Automatic annotation (TrEMBL):
SUPFAM superfamilies: Bacterial luciferase-like (SSF51679). NCBIfam families: F420_Rv2161c. PANTHER family: ALKANESULFONATE MONOOXYGENASE, ALKANESULFONATE MONOOXYGENASE-RELATED. InterPro entries: Lucif-like_OxRdtase_Rv2161c (IPR019921), Luciferase-like_dom (IPR011251), Luciferase-like_sf (IPR036661), SsuD_RutA_monooxygenase (IPR050172). Keywords: Flavoprotein, FMN, Monooxygenase, Oxidoreductase. One of its GO terms (biological process) is alkanesulfonate catabolic process. This is Luciferase-like domain-containing protein.
């Protein structure tokens, strides 16, 4: 998981090099903008790159055209801020373009000013989020579909293309292990995308709860997908040596995630430039044997 400093085209170059190194997937986050007037928990330590995040769907579409096997994901996207009619078409089109390699990592959004700028009351971010996902799922899986919710309404319509992956790309919810978030995960998603900093210590208990809830909902507990995310690795703007010695996830953590039965660990890669892409990627690729 990485983000470019200035030029989105560097993200494409990064993906090609990642595929050459046998890295399984590449992920980019989403923020439509960074409000200048900030009042949130991270304001004093917000990295510069948060002002420069490119559109992940556009970047991943460009990567799809230049790669063959590496999976492409959003880490994380904010569908609750979007229009489900546009999102269903955008994500399905991307899944077609990449031949079914897309993973939709999603979350609620934590920046209340950003939410308000989209006309969303932060108090209802979770309920709107659930309706957006339900509407997108319906548009993917029905020839004609209508939706009438509290936050989302649209008349019966056709929406094409449909995704290559049926019933759609895997939807992985990045959330804390709370009752309400897990309820939405079971209702709308295919897997859990927790931060290792927030979730690893109690992951055994949380995963058992999720599998139990899958069973209660009539879903196969074994179908629960697990992707852990190292958000600490990309948070600070550091050089390659500092990353390898102080910020990169430890091999023991990779092994712990593997033993939990996770499908993958997304390794955070800090700010890169054209000159630092290769050594940064080499530092990530060194962890692959620990995951085997």
């Amino acid at each position: 998981m990485a983000t470019a400093w200035d030029d989105p085209r560097d993200c494409v170059r990064l993906a090609v090099m990642a595929e050459e190194r046998g890295i399984e997937s590449i992920w980019f986050g989403e923020h439509s903008h960074l409000p200048v007037g900030e009042d949130h928990a991270f304001v004093r330590q917000m990295p510069e790159f948060y002002r420069r995040i490119p559109d992940p769907y556009v970047v991943l579409a460009a990567i799809a055209a230049r790669t063959r096997v590496i999976r492409l994901g959003t880490g994380i996207a904010l569908p609750g801020q979007g229009d489900p009619l546009h999102l269903a078409k955008t994500v399905a089109s991307l899944d077609v373009l990449c031949g079914g390699r897309f993973e939709w990592g999603v979350g609620y959004g934590w920046n209340e000013t950003e939410l308000r700028d989209h006309g969303i009351d932060p108090r209802y971010r979770m309920s709107r989020f659930g309706e957006v996902l339900a509407a997108v799922r319906g548009l993917w899986t029905h020839d004609r579909f209508t939706f009438g919710g509290k936050h989302i309404q649209f008349a019966e319509c056709w929406s094409y293309p449909k995704p290559v992956q049926a019933p759609g790309p895997p939807i992985l919810l990045g959330c804390r292990a709370t009752a309400r978030a897990f309820e939405q995960l079971v209702d709308h998603c295919d897997g859990w995308l927790p931060s290792i900093e927030q979730a690893l210590d109690t992951a055994d208990v949380s995963i058992a709860k999720l599998r139990s809830r899958f069973a209660e909902a009539g879903r196969d507990p074994a179908s629960l997908q697990l992707t852990f995310m190292d958000s600490r690795g990309f948070w600070l703007d550091v050089d390659t040596d500092t990353y390898k010695t102080k910020r990169r996830v430890k091999r023991a953590t990779v092994e712990r995630v593997r033993d939990l039965g996770a499908d993958r660990l997304i390794v955070g890669m800090p700010l890169f430039t054209v000159d630092t892409i290769e050594p940064m990627l080499d530092a990530v690729a060194e962890l692959i044997p620990a995951a085997a």
